[in-house]
Amino acid sequence: ALVEEVAAELALHPKTIQRQIRDGALPGRKFGSVYRISPVEWAAYLDGTWQPRPKSAPAPKPTELIVRKAS
Predict the structure, then answer these.
(1) Does residue 17 contact residue 35 with C-beta atoms inside 8 Å?
(2) Handedness of CA 42, 44, 50, 56 (dihedral sign)
(3) Residue 32 to residue 30: CA distance in whole angstroms
(4) CA gap 62, 44 in Å, rounded
(5) What are phi and psi of 36, to 5 degrees?
(6) What was the pLDDT predicted at 51?
């Protein structure tokens, strides 16, 4: 589904849908400059069975990286 279709169905602005996809609150992916939601994920979201993807851990700071020398 396109963001515009989902926005119309939820009575929200398309930018709100894009932001919620980017933040992981709604299912979907960005392909180039277009956000899309797969029909399977959208159906799961509407059924209440979709689980948001977990927030990824922040990248370690360079000082926290372990550097191993090759033997």
Answers:
(1) yes
(2) negative
(3) 6
(4) 39
(5) -135, 150
(6) 81
Give the pLDDT of residue 52: 76
Those residues with Cβ within 8 angstroms of residue 27's Cβ, 6 or more apart along the chain or in another chain: 21, 37, 38, 41, 42, 44, 45, 50
Whether the model clears a pTM of 0.85, i.e. scores above it, the answer is no
- One pLDDT digit (tens) per residue for the chain, 71 residues: 788 999 999 999 999 999 999 888 899 888 888 898 988 888 899 999 988 766 665 555 555 445 555 55
Using CA atoms in the order 50, 52, 53, 54, what is the torsion angle rounded to 10 degrees? Answer: -140
CA distance 71 to 61: 25
Q: And the tokens for 38?
A: 């797969």
Answer whether 21's CB lies under 8 Å from 12's CB.
Answer: no
- Measured between alpha carbons, how far is 55 from 25 in angstroms, rounded to an integer? 10
